[in-house]
Amino acid sequence: MTTARLNARSSTHSNAHLTERQLQIQMLRTRAEFERLALRRSACAVLGAVSPDALLSHAGSSLRASGLSWLATGWGFVRRYPLILSAASTLLSGARRGNPYVRVGMGALLVWRLLRRRG
Asked: Which pick of 20, 31, 58, 95 has the fewest CB atoms within 10 Å?
């Protein structure tokens, strides 16, 4: 064989090897990108699982499983109507503010509003 043919053949072989190497590098880059995407999704899932709403929801399901469903129901009710917790703490606090009938009236008003809203 002539020298020109040998040079052409080795050049073609070198180009094929270079193309194969570039393809391998591109595949590795693509794989790394997919792994970064999966890591990002997992991080978002963990952040969602640690949010206050998710933690309270998990606590509620744990209370139901342990037989304290009435407490979980009450907690869900307080979360839905935050005014209940505020009014209950005001009514049950030891601070005496005038007439005790005012506190009873506030409690009756609260119950009436909740029943009216629910029904």
From this structure: 95
Q: Could you tell me what percent of the chain has a pLDDT over 70?
A: 71
| Reported pTM | 0.37
| Cα distances (Å, whole numbers) of residue 7 to 13, 16, 17, 18 | 10, 14, 15, 16
- Identify residue 14 by its one-letter amino acid code: S
User: Where along the chain do its domains lie?
Assistant: 1-50, 81-118
- Amino acid letter, residue 46: V
Token match 């969602």: residue? Answer: 48
Tell me if 43 sits within 8 A of 50, measured CB to CB: no
Tens of pLDDT, residues 60-91: 677 777 777 777 777 777 777 777 777 777 77
**How would DSSP label each residue in 53-106?**
HHHHHHHHHHHHHTT-HHHHHHHHHHHH-HHHHHHHHHHHSS---S-HHHHHHH
